[in-house]
Write a structure and sequence with these properties.
alpha/beta
Amino acid sequence: MPACLLLLLALPFFAASLAEAQSRPFGGVPPGYARYVSDASETAAEEEYDYIVVGGGAAGCPLAATLAGPGGGRVLLLERGGAPAEFPALATAGGFVRTLALADPSPESDAPAQGFSSEDGVANVRARVLGGGTAINAGFYSRAHPDWFYGHGEGAEVPDWDMHLVNASYEWVEQELTFQPEVHGWQAAVRAALLEANVTPWNGFTVDHVTGTKIGATTFDASGRRHSAADLLAFARPGRLRVAVRATVTRIIINPIDPADRRGRSRPAVGAVGVVYQDRLLQQHHALLRPGGEVILSAGALGSPQLLLLSGIGPASDLVSLGIPVSADAPDVGKHMFDNPRNGISIIPSVPIDHSLIQVVGIPSANGTASYLEAASYIVPLAPMLLPGPFMGPSSPLYVTMATIMEKVPGPLSEGSLWLSSPNPLETPSVRFNYFSRPEDLAQCVVGVRRVAQVLRSRTMDIFRSPVGSSSQGRRGPARRDFRIVGATLPLDWSTNDTSVADFCKRTVTTLWHYHGGCVVGRVVDKDFRVTSARYLRVVDGSTFSVTPGTNPQATIMMMGRYVGLKMIGDRHSRRLVNNTSS
């Protein structure tokens, strides 16, 4: 039975249980940041701030907390979704599959995950909740591979990273959000199988990106409770931070800059002065910048380029065709979009296993030149498929356990683009990733899929094989054992036929939700993440990446929010010193 069918069958059960759960307030002690959070409908029609951060996700939360901390200013953080405490399923690892299964594509929906499909035909998800992807993902935490800080793909520029500050920013995040998982069951078996398949050496537990097999950190604590980037908001100073949820930013307010203030013809002719946002009652609000302030987009790889386009910053011809006034002709906005292809094998194991999200990872090459290997196991509830009987009522669910081993192509080199389907800010923009359009990515997948097969062939995995028949020629003997595959199976000649494995890659490609790009450094923003075509405007999130930072990007995106926030505070103090000296 295909894996997608299992999820479809599960949807009725998921919908009923999640709807029931969401009708109740989330119990327990309110999170430390709750005092800063209010519904956008409760905010003023117009108000001024030093910093306006658009998008309360993996980058936006640590960025806003830092800018509202020591040396910072008054900060407004705008998040289009609700708060995590409103959605109990987000709080534990068990809710991960349920949340993705209920991803709702409707812009009017309140679901914390919003579904969409790329023009490639691959189903995908974007977060719609405070905390962003860190509030709905599998919780795996691992730092970027070291070379990532020195090169971002073919011909791409990179920021001048201060590695001391980078490491300090990682540590700041890790002290609050990360934990060492207890590895057993499926994850322990995968660990042994990776080593048996020669993904060595064994590195134990580490947050660093190192060659071999390792246990990464998790954002689920020992009690199973999720910690997300939203928790970092508690570090803001009281009175400096306001977080407005269900606040959909419809455009950045862009004004011309007086030529006398441009200090040279190469400087942008326009600058951001604030944003317009809409609350759940469809009322419009204006958040404006104080002198010296900045608007920072942290709305993700879909949201940030979309908002630039809606505000008239993008390819002029595309904007004119949609009736959007052009503020700045920026041809690379929405271009250079990437998504890491994921391919894998799912099985129904012959023995009971636990529910586990990604904890163990295989890294064949430390510099990001070979596919990463990861695994998970899910206990999936199915809608009843049998008639009611003495042991099964009409609402009793069936359960099936699925275990998956997957490979993720690093980079990738294949790139696509994003564009507006309409000028409606509530609609998800159109995007095409062009998976495997570069032969190098397809070759990586072939090698990665073969490694998945080698892991499955290991002796460690034999226990998960099921009997499929008796010995040949009718003789008595032990039954042959094999995997009960869910979905596509590997070609029989996987070890020798590159063409058949490449075809498998193309037929079964899906996403690991690590899409990035659209506002790439050196094309849309400079090395300090400032938008090159407009002043007082930055983009700080994964849309600035042209290469994925290792096995999972959330660690580096959260680090980035803290890092850029500290840099901005340093710049603020430097400007004050210059102004005081000149006066």
